Amino acid sequence: MEAIEAVDRLVDEREAARILCVSPGTLSVWRSTRRWPLPYAKLGKAIRYSTAALEKFVAERTVVPERPPKAKPARKPRRQRAARGNRPREAANAAAK
């Protein structure tokens, strides 16, 4: 005799919305427009979502960054200017006159 697999837990629209961090109205729009391929069961008027399907939905949309952002290079210290009277150009100009 085969072992019977445990049936996945079904949750209502409100609980599914809480799991996905969206409003129940958003789930309703997604169903009616087929915006996302999120499977659901319709039992009479009741809409139920499988927790495994919700976990799979989230896992498929999980983004992992390819590499960490580059750190900004340290700024080079500014070169300090010489005092006004001690500039080489002024000394050269004064010597030429």
Give a description of the structure.
- 38% of the residues lie in helices and 11% in strands.
- It has helices at 13-20, 24-33, 51-60, 88-96, and strands spanning 10-12, 41-43, 46-50.
- It contains four helices and three strands; from the N terminus they run E-H-H-E-E-H-H.
- Helix 1 packs across helix 2 (24-33).
- By secondary structure, it is an alpha+beta fold.
- It has a domain at 10-60.
- The model has no long low-confidence stretch (mean pLDDT 80).
Instruction: Give a quick account of the main beta sheet: strands, pairing sense, barrel closure.
Output: 3 strands, antiparallel
The number of helical segments is: 4
Distance between the termini: 112 Å
Order of helices and strands: EHHEEHH
Q: Approximately how much beta-strand content do the residues carry?
A: 5-15%
Mean pLDDT: 80
Low-confidence stretches: none
- How large is the radius of gyration? 33 Å
**Basic shape:** rod-shaped
Instruction: Name the helicity range.
Output: 25-40%
The strand order across the widest sheet is 1-3-2
State the total count of DSSP E strands. 3
Based on secondary structure, the structural category is: alpha+beta
